[in-house]
Amino acid sequence: MSEGYSHDPVLADEVVDLLKPSAGTWIDGTLGGGGHAELLLGAHPELVLIGVDQDPEAIEAAAARLDGYADRVTLVEGNFRDVAEIAASRSEVGTVQGALLDLGVSSHQLDRQARGFSFRRSTPLDMRMGGTTDGRRTAADLLNEEAEAELGRIFREFGEERKWRRLAKEVVKRRASARFETSDDLVAACTTVLGSGLSAGTKARLFQALRIAVNDELAALQEVLPALRDKLASGGRLAVISYHSLEDRIVKNAFRDWSKACVCPPELPVCRCRGVPLGTTMTRKPIRPSDREVQRNPRARSARLRGWQRA
Questions:
Q1: What is the value of pTM for the model shown?
Q2: Measuring CA to CA, which of 46, 101, 169, 192 is 20 to 30 A from 262?
Q3: CA distance 172 to 80
Q4: How many angstroms separate the CA atoms of 15 and 7, rounded?
Q5: CA separation for the pair 241, 176 (Å, rounded)
Q6: What are the beta bridge partners of residue 124?
C-alpha cells in the first residue's frame, strides 16, 4: 500500500534547530512518511515519540522507515486535531517536551492520481486525507450536494476567490445536468467564470479550497493548537510548518496571543485575564526554506516554520 511513499522532510535542519530535541515524550501530529520523526528520534537517544496520521498509507510507510526506533515509537492512525487526546489516553504520558505539525498535503498524496488532490486531467475529485476508508464526504460530494451559499463560502473563505458568487452559481447550474466527477469538471466550471487563461496558481488555490473544506483543516488546526499548548511541559516547544496564508495566520495569531501578558479587550479599564504570558514566540518572522532547498524540492517553496515555547 505504501509503495513509493517517500518523505523528504521540509526545513529539516531548521526544525531540529528550533525544537532542540531532548529526553521525554514528543508528538509528531502529522507523521507523513516519517521524515521529521526520524530526525527527532535520531537527535536524542532518550526521546520517545507518538506519531499520528490519518492516512493509513502514511502509517505503513512510517512504520517501515522508523523500524530501527520501534522501541521508542508509537504510531496511531488518527486526525491531528486529536493528538493531545491521543497522548492523554496513554497512562505513561504526562506532559510532552515538544510537538511538531507539518500541515498540508504530502507529495505522495499529490502524486497518486487516485487520491484526487491534483488538477491533472481526469483526476477523481476525492481529496480525503484519510483515503478511501475515511468517512468524510469527497470533494465531488461537496460539489454535487452543498447549497450554493455554502459553495460560495468555501470559494470565498478558503480559496480567497473574488468571483465566488458566480463560481458557486456555475457549479450548481452544471450539476443539474451532470454530476461533478473529475478535475476536468471543476476546471471547466472555473474556466467559464474566470476565463480560458486559467493559471496553475488559480487552479491550485481553488482545488485547495475544496480540500480544506473536505478535511475541515482550519477548524482542526484551531482546535489542536491550544490542546498541544496545554500538553507541553514547562520549557516545552511547539513548531508548525504551514503552506498557505490561511494556516499561517492562525498559527501566527495563536503564538502572538499566548505570548502576551494581557489579552483583555482594550475597552476594559482593568486586566481581568491571566495577566501573565503563557510562553514565548521563538520566531519573530517565519523561517523559510533556502534557495537550495527549493531547487531540490520545489514544493517546499511556500513552507513557513514558526515556533513557540511554553513558560
A1: 0.91
A2: 101
A3: 33
A4: 15
A5: 40
A6: 182
